[in-house]
Design a protein that fits this description.
It is built from 26 helices and 27 strands. By secondary structure, the chain is of the alpha/beta class. The mean pLDDT is 90. It binds one RNA strand of 86 nucleotides through helix 7, strand 9, strand 13, helix 11 and strand 23.
Length: 800
RNA sequence: GCCGAAGUGGCGGAAUGGUAGACGCACAAGACUCAAAAUCUUGCGAGAGCAAUCUCAUGAGGGUUCGAGUCCCUCCUUCGGUACCA
């Protein structure tokens, strides 16, 4: 079959018939299937995209035949670094580059035969789209959830851009792999931490894979503990308090020193009292130079400097303890200060060993000469006054009561998740709807003035002083204050990559609305997303950010559902033929457009879904794909076996029913590989029988349709069917009056001996009778049967 | 270190605690052909046997069970995530 011709033909027919069009407020049950919209980068799509999109594609194709009103949309996450870097590299304005790339990728997607509803195509860089991204920011600002503050940020010297923690994991820039350094900057933050608890608790109700939930939980990083007010004293006189965060307030009697982060404000406050301030300053400087990554790398070798001249006071024992600064304590977590209990914390232990500090055990057991002893399960308190004899959990509780009673401490929940650093010094992003006025301060752009359009510029490369290129566009930057009408300047930073993708699934439900981000009625009809498939790499950032925005919009009353995604699944990577991750440097990248040219989109999709379990990574094979090609050719030749029988042959009913059942279930559980193998088995069986009816063939083609839609449509037409498959109804199981026969395995002492063909639902007694009459099996039971395990329709096991 | 996933033929991979290796690839033999390709048929975990058949076999070692690739314990390896988070 000429795949090029028939694929083009059916793509045109589907488009003309508008079969993938999602109808608002239709009476049919709705199904909203979502895939992660692609970045329109210059290199086009990757074979991984094809796999990623194929799950919802297959499910959507089936669901439409099953009578669902399916929303399966597509769009472009076009702001952000990949596009901008491409534009800079090729010296093309980002707008032009984006449009070119979109055009190219759109062509690739259409050629691949995806059943997207193109009427709902969105583009995050379209001003009608980012108007609403800006609008959401305005609401966040109004609710006090967006703020600007000075902060140490991850800064990539090569890209000249500030990165979020998510974009600089491991201290490496996400985009260019350069080493990230720390820099102090005025940064916009979104208070995602205010939603931490809800983001965490919401997970329980969601149909996400457990590992996805675990990663999100870990990312949010909730820990329960206590803040305890230690004292600071100078010359034996208490002058201040120093609050620490601990999850182990039960060990308060074991504190032998304190540690604060190098940037902790007490150093500046008491610099006059610190005798070795020069040494301290030197340490602060060296810590600043180290990126967060370096700190981690050096985690075996603890460093620090004692703050001589000031001491900490343990509020329980009133003992004086030394205070150190050390870079193993982070300013950004807890209070930036800790109480150190070397006997029961590995880090404190290492530090104490190095600096010769006392190690005082407060939990029985272990050998503190060798290592810190940690037993939160069964540990029993010692050397701890009123806690002695209690187990750790009980001691925690009692200590906390004591602290709260004496007003020297309180229960405290902390989250590892930091507020979301929400700006970049780049051109290709959403401008902030923010104006700075000398008189009025920070002023929001009024809603009627949205969108704040991104001006066309000549110089879109990042400038070397770390400022956004927008800062150089005087006529854009200088504006009137919306409040007082006086001279004012616009915010020149832009929003990060994740902004536009944090709410795009909402826009799909009402993409052309110019009054609101989406009408509530349409959100109510389509939302929430029934099934969202995407990559494991977006589980912690994109998924959490978008859940946060959705929750916020829910609180505002704009969105009628709190959680945006009912169900989430993840595809495994397509690895290179050598088993490694595909990469240009390894030269193992497979160009899927070449595969389409050679084999067609149907064979490509069939093979991608057949090669392994959908959710696990699997290597590409240019040999194995032949099997899928041959399979379709075999199906094509099956035409010659079609007889004149009007109906389903009695002998084929069971087989066909099983196929319908299997394919339907497998598609619903992403087991595409076994669905396809069942289709193959069916064909093999038909070849054995050498006949099938037209109806059998037609239903087979319907089942094949989600995986090889063009081919199935073409074959269906050749069979003489007047109705397109895309407009047909998904096959259902037929009444089966035939006596169902099964092969029942017979085990003797747990070992398989024989298969006997029996009627379905046969009784134990009848089976035993058959066994007695079976020449071979009778021999085994000649010595008498001790015990019989009979599992109806499954197995019989004879213990002799 | 911690969290998660996984280890099954020559290869990709199937198996609600119940026939291990479905389906496909590769390979071999046969049919068709002048020949090749394509196609069709058959075989294809290892060992023993003319054979029927038997024994062994799902990373290693234990255990639970009538029965374990699947559940439990200990360990090894690989991959992914994460990390001085107090």
């Amino acid at each position: 079959m000429e795949h090029e011709k028939i694929e083009k033909k059916w793509q045109e027919i589907w488009e003309k018939e508008r079969v993938f069009h999602a109808k608002d407020f239709d009476n049919k049950p709705k199904f909203y299937g979502l895939i992660e919209f692609p970045y329109p980068s210059g290199v086009g799509l990757h074979i991984g995209h094809i796999k990623a999109f194929s799950s919802m594609e297959v499910i959507s194709r089936m669901k439409r035949l099953q009578g669902y009103n399916v929303l399966f949309p597509i769009g472009w996450d076009a702001f952000g670094l990949p596009t901008e870097n491409y534009a800079i590299k090729h010296n093309i304005p980002p707008r032009v580059a984006t449009d070119e790339n979109i055009k190219n990728i759109k062509k690739q997607l259409k050629k691949s035969g995806f059943s997207f509803d193109w009427d709902r195509e969105i583009d995050t860089t379209d001003e009608n789209y980012y108007k609403w991204t800006q609008w959401i920011f305005c609401q966040l600002y109004k609710k006090g959830l967006a703020y600007k503050s000075k902060a140490l940020v991850n800064y990539c010297p090569s890209c000249d851009v500030i990165l979020s923690n998510e974009e600089s994991q491991g201290g490496i820039c996400d985009r260019c792999s350069s080493q990230v350094v720390q820099k102090e900057k005025e940064v916009w933050f979104l208070k995602i931490r205010e939603y931490a608890e809800r983001l965490l608790n919401g997970l329980d109700k969601l149909d996400f894979p457990e590992r996805v939930k675990e990663e999100q939980r870990h990312w949010i990083g909730r820990s329960t503990g206590a803040e305890v007010d230690f004292g600071i004293c100078i010359n034996n006189k208490k002058v201040d308090k120093l609050t620490v965060y601990t999850t182990r307030c039960d060990t308060l009697f074991g504190v032998t020193f304190m540690v604060v982060a190098p940037e902790h404000p007490i150093i500046e406050k008491y610099k006059k009292s610190i005798e070795n301030i020069e040494e301290v300053r030197a340490y602060q400087e060296s810590a600043k130079k180290k990126s967060e990554f370096d700190r981690i790398q050096l985690n075996k070798d603890k460093t620090g400097v004692e703050l001589k001249g000031i001491k900490g006071i343990n509020p329980i024992t009133n003992e004086e303890v030394p205070i150190f600064i050390a870079d193993y304590v982070m300013l950004g977590y807890g209070t930036g200060a800790i109480m150190a209990v070397p006997a029961h914390d590995t880090r404190d232990y290492e530090f104490a060993k190095k600096f010769n500090i006392d190690i005082k055990p407060v939990i029985k057991g272990g050998d503190i000469e060798k290592e810190a002893y940690i037993d939160i399960q069964d540990g029993v308190m010692i050397n701890s006054d009123f806690l002695d004899g209690l187990k750790v959990e009980e001691a925690k509780k009692k200590m906390l009561e004591y602290l709260e009673d004496k007003k020297i401490g309180q229960a405290k929940v902390n989250y590892q998740m930091k507020d979301w650093a929400f700006n970049r010094q780049r051109y290709w992003g959403e401008p902030f709807p923010i104006i700075y006025c000398d008189k009025c301060g920070t002023v929001l752009v009024p809603e009627e003035d949205l969108p704040v359009k991104l001006p066309a510029v000549k110089e879109f490369k990042p400038s070397k002083n770390g400022e956004s290129p927008l800062a150089q566009v005087e006529e854009w930057v200088n504006c009137k204050c919306p409040k007082c009408g006086g001279k004012a300047r616009r915010e020149t930073d832009t929003m990060p990559q994740w902004a536009g993708s944090s709410w795009y699934f909402l826009r799909y439900m009402d993409p052309h609305n110019d009054k609101e981000l989406a009408s509530k009625d349409k959100l109510k009809y389509w939302g929430p997303v029934d099934w969202y498939n995407g990559g494991m790499e977006h589980v912690t950032r994109h998924l959490i950010y978008s859940r946060f925005w959705n929750m916020f919009l829910y609180d505002l009353g704009v969105v009628p559902f709190e959680e945006p995604y009912k169900k989430r699944s993840t595809q495994g990577l397509v690895l290179g033929e050598d088993g490694n991750k595909m990469s240009k440097s390894l030269g193992n990248v497979v160009d899927f457009t070449e595969i389409i040219d050679k084999y067609g989109a149907d064979v490509l999709r069939l093979y991608i879904l057949f090669m392994a379990d959908y959710e696990s990574a699997a290597p590409w094979s240019s040999k194995n794909i032949n099997g899928c090609k041959r399979f379709l050719e075999r199906v094509e030749r099956m035409t010659s076996l079609v007889d004149k029988y009007d109906g389903v042959h009695g002998e084929h009913i069971t087989m066909l029913n099983e196929l319908i059942n299997k394919v339907t279930n497998d598609i619903n559980t992403l087991k595409f590989n076994t669905a396809i193998s069942a289709l193959m088995t069916f064909v093999n069986n038909i070849y054995q029988d050498k006949y099938l009816s037209k109806i059998e063939f037609s239903e087979f083609l319907q089942l094949l349709y989600p995986f090889a839609p063009h081919f199935a449509e073409e074959m269906n037409e050749r069979l003489g069917n007047k109705t397109y498959i895309c407009k047909s109804n998904w096959p259902v199981e037929k009444e089966d009056n035939s006596k169902k026969m099964i092969n029942l395995p017979v085990q003797v002492n747990g070992k398989m001996k024989e298969l006997i063909k029996v009627e379905f639902d046969i009784s134990k007694e009848e089976v035993l009778k058959l066994i007695e009459n079976n020449e071979k099996l009778a021999g085994f039971i000649a010595g008498g049967i001790k015990k019989v395990i009979f599992v109806p329709n499954k197995i019989i096991n004879l213990i002799v």
